[in-house]
Design brief:
With about 220 residues, this protein is mainly alpha-helical. The chain has a 3-stranded antiparallel β-sheet. It is rod-shaped. It folds into 2 domains: about 80 residues, Multidrug-efflux Transporter Regulator, Chain: A, Domain 2 (Orthogonal Bundle), CATH 1.10.1660; about 70 residues. Helix content is about 70%, strand content about 5%.
């Protein structure tokens, strides 16, 4: 058995990462992955590079930055013959994962708190707007009632018809009341016309009557 190579699952376990992540990081580091008896293997040096990259990423580096650092710095970590990780190596990734989860939960909680405050502010604004509209509606209702009362008052004024008392003629106490005049008849009208004609003729013939008397 060649001791210069280590199974990829064991290398991933030593680094505290998944097998898929170990395969991806190995490609970034240029570590060759071989396959023997259906088991993928990498060199012991590649396994140490994966562990170093995991430590850098846990320290806050991105995988790209960690790969660039490891590619620029030769690996001087001695090869361990015992592939079993120490207790600290096994616990550090767990604690780091828990820290990442805690930070993610805190970020989600802060985002939710911000959204709740925003919604609460919108609810308060809507409540104030509803109260203002209710006040405006009450004022309009009072104005409408006053206008209706004024319209009814004007309508009563227009419909009012004062009672007119009948006029009764009153006779003067010193002047006897004139007897009622009857409608003129044909005979009275003819007599009146004859009298008027006689008066007119007297007026016309009066100058000539004096001449006749002197002659």
């Amino acid at each position: 058995m060649n001791t210069d190579y280590i199974a990829l699952p064991d290398a991933a376990k030593n680094a505290g990462i998944t097998v898929d992540k170990a395969r991806h990081w190995a490609n970034q580091l240029g570590v060759e992955i071989t396959k023997a008896s259906r088991v993928r293997r990498i060199s012991a040096t590649g396994g140490q590079q994966l562990a170093s990259m995991a430590a850098l990423v846990s320290g806050g580096r991105s995988p790209q930055e960690a790969a660039a650092i490891l590619l620029a710095t030769p690996c001087t970590i001695p090869v361990q013959s015992d592939p079993t990780p120490s207790l600290d190596t096994a616990i550090d990734p767990i604690l780091s994962g828990q820290s990442d989860i805690q930070q993610a939960v805190l970020a989600i909680a802060e985002s939710f708190r911000t959204e709740v405050l925003t919604v609460r502010g919108e609810v308060v604004a809507v409540r104030e707007e509803v109260a203002r509209l209710a006040t405006d509606n009450l004022v309009l209702a009072k104005q409408n009632q006053r206008l209706l009362e004024e319209i009814q008052s004007l309508r009563k004024c227009l419909d009012y018809k004062p009672a007119v008392a009948p006029v009764i003629p009153v006779a003067h106490p010193m002047v006897p009341a004139a007897p009622p005049r009857s409608a003129p008849t044909w005979a009275s009208s003819f007599h009146q016309a004859v009298v008027e004609t006689q008066e007119w003729m007297r007026g016309v013939l009066a100058p000539f009557m004096g001449v006749f008397r002197r002659g």
